Structures are given as C-alpha cells and as structure tokens.
C-alpha cells in the first residue's frame, strides 16, 4: 500500500510538505500544480514551486516530491515534463482535475475530461518525453459534469504509458460538496491494469477503511485531512499493521506549528507568512475535539500578531 500526500495549491507548499511528511506515513507527495501554457518555463519557476529540487527532489525527511504540471498542449506539456526531470524531479503527475473556471475557460484542468482523446495525446506525449524509469501519473476527476467518459479516459491514460492514475472520486461539477463516489473507483480499477490511487473524502481511519473496502484500491491519496490531521498517514499505516494507534495530543500539533513558523522565518519573515501560521492553526482547530480547545485558545493569543517572531515567541513559551 502507498499513501500519497495530495497536491493542494495555496496550502501544501514546500514548508507544509516538509512538516507533514516528517510526521511519517507518506510514500511520496505531489507538488502544487505548475501551469504550463505556451513555452518551456524558466528554471526559477520550477525551483520556486518545488525548492526540494535543490535537495535531490525530496523533502528534508526524504519523501519524494513528484512535480505536477497542468496544461493542454501536448508538446508544451511534454517539453516542460522533460525540463522538470532534467532539474531533478523524481516523478511527474499531470493535472486533469482542476475545477477552476479560469483554468477551464482556457481549456485546461477538468474541462479536458470532455475530450478523452486529447487527454490521451497529452499523457502519451509527456510520457515519451521523460525516461521510462521516471514514475509518471495522471490525476483526474470522474468527469467534468458527467461520468460517461471516465472509463475511456482511464484506458487512454493507461495506453499512453502512465504508471498509475489518481482518481478524485467526484466530477468537477460536484466540486467538494457531494460525497466522493468510491464505487466508481472500483469500476475504473476493474477496467485497467495500472494501479488506481483512490482519492476523495479520506478523513480518518474509518473512512480510509470504507474507501479501501468499497474501491478495492491498494493506494490512497489524502488531501484536506492531511492538513487537519498531520499524523493521519502514520495512524493509517499503524492501523494497516494492526499496531496500536498513536494518540495525538494538542502539544504535539503545537510543536509542528512552531516548526512551521521557524521554517518560514528562516526563509521569509513577512506578514503573509504570519497569516499562513494562523491559517493552519484554524484548520488544525477543526481537526478533532481533543485538539480544538487548545487550538482555539492559541488562535485567540496570536490572531492580532503580524510577524512570525511574535508568533514563534508565543508558541515557544507554551
Ligand atoms: C485548496 C485546495 C487546493 C488544491 N490544489 C490542487 C492541485 O494543485 N492539484 C490537484 O491535482 N488537485 C488539487 N486539489 C485537489 C486535491 O488534491 C484532492 O484531489 C481533493 O482535495 C480531494 O481529496 P480530499 O478529499 O482528500 O481533500 C486541491 C484541493 C484543495 C482543497
């Protein structure tokens, strides 16, 4: 079984990837998408989005970061895929699930699920542009606003040479509201030979087990819950091995928050970074009843603070 930390644009950047993968349990993570439109992007764009490239393509805890590209032009996507590997990417992922109206309006992301042949062409071109030894994935939803194409799309992605396919078990029209339709993962899995990575609504050990049993999948990607429960992957691994599940206390999460602040303070001490700590604290406070009280109290203490220095002092003092 593989557990993968999902790409989450605007949230799971290099700092949070480092903190969360360091808790253990994740086999690899996928970067926030890098949008490719008309040209090969300069090196700095890749380094800015995935600074782990300067560290052998892995987070400091040694977890590989696969680079996700999003585009709709086969030759531009493939040139950028080749470039990413040249810069040291240990794996690649292509995004066919982004629901953003702006992106979809430009013919990229989930709208491509209306064009199975185009998806096939993009994956085939990019797959051929990188060494066959480089892990190569595509990430899809069940469709744009219907599920009629998904089997054809999955088969096309397999025929194009992808090693795995991640399926977020919703259509783009479902956004994040309707429950994930795990039964579709089983249908897709049965229609292809490459592994399906199940994604959508894995929020705790219980839902993980349900998703596993309904989908029959062996591999899982966790998005929003990875940020709310930073030790979830570790706990899932423990449950799989029939080990006792580690109880996570608020002070343990608070320690992660401090590490996050310190990490960002080393790189950039701006107001934006202070609000990132507050944002993560808010998300943590929604994690579990046992941590909520501590997190809410902490939020009250730091909510007016403008700098990472001030916030770190409070986090260290407690
Ligand atoms: C804030 C946010 C940003 C996201 N950014 C990306 C992205 O860059 N690329 C991508 O393929 N999916 C992205 N997703 C989708 C997630 O990777 C995942 O498929 C989705 O959240 C469902 O999984 P979950 O229920 O475990 O969160 C994003 C989701 C959220 C909520």
SSE inventory with pairings:
Elements: E1 2-5, H1 14-22, E2 28-30, E3 34-35, H2 43-49, E4 65-70, H3 74-86, E5 92-96, H4 101-105, H5 116-129, E6 136-143, H6 150-159, E7 164-171, H7 182-191, E8 196-199, H8 205-215, E9 219-222, H9 224-228, H10 232-240, H11 250-267, H12 271-285, H13 289-302, H14 308-317
Parallel strand pairs: 1-2, 1-9, 2-4, 3-4, 4-5, 5-6, 6-7, 7-8, 8-9
Helix pairs in contact: 1-11, 3-5, 5-6, 11-12, 11-13, 11-14, 12-13
Bound molecules: flavin mononucleotide (FMN).
Short summary:
Helix content is about 45%, strand content about 15%.
Q: What keywords describe this structure?
A:
single chain, 318 residues, alpha/beta, TIM Barrel, Bacteriocin As-48, Chain A, 2 domains, eight-stranded parallel beta barrel, 14 helices, binds flavin mononucleotide
């Amino acid at each position: 079984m593989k557990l993968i930390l999902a790409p989450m644009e605007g949230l799971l950047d290099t700092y949070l990837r480092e903190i969360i993968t360091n808790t253990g349990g994740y086999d690899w993570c996928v970067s926030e998408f890098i949008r490719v439109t008309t040209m090969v992007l300069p090196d700095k764009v890749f380094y800015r989005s995935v600074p782990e490239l300067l560290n052998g393509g892995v987070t400091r805890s040694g977890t590989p970061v696969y680079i996700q590209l999003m585009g709709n032009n086969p030759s531009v996507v493939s040139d950028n895929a080749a470039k990413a590997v040249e810069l040291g990417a240990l794996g690649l992922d292509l995004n066919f699930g982004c629901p953003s109206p702006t992106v979809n309006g430009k013919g990229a992301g989930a709208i491509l699920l209306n064009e199975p042949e185009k998806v096939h062409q993009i994956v085939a071109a990019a797959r051929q542009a990188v060494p066959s030894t480089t892990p190569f994935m595509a990430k899809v939803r069940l469709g744009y606003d219907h599920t009629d194409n998904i089997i054809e799309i999955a088969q096309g992605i397999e025929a194009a040479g992808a090693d795995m396919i991640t399926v977020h078990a919703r259509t783009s029209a479902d956004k994040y509201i309707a429950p994930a339709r795990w039964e579709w993962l089983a249908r897709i899995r049965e229609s292809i030979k490459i592994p399906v990575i199940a994604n959508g609504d894995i929020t705790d050990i219980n839902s993980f087990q349900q998703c596993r049993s309904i989908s029959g999948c062996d591999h899982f990607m966790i998005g929003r819950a990875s940020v709310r429960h930073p030790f979830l992957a570790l706990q899932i691994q423990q449950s799989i091995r029939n080990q006792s599940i580690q109880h996570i206390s608020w002070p343990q999460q608070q320690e992660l928050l401090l590490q996050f602040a310190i990490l960002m303070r080393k790189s950039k001490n701006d107001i934006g970074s202070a609000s990132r700590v507050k944002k993560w604290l808010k998300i943590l406070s929604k994690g579990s009843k046992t941590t909520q009280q501590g997190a809410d109290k902490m939020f009250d203490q730091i909510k007016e603070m403008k700098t990472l220095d001030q916030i770190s002092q409070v986090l260290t003092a407690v």
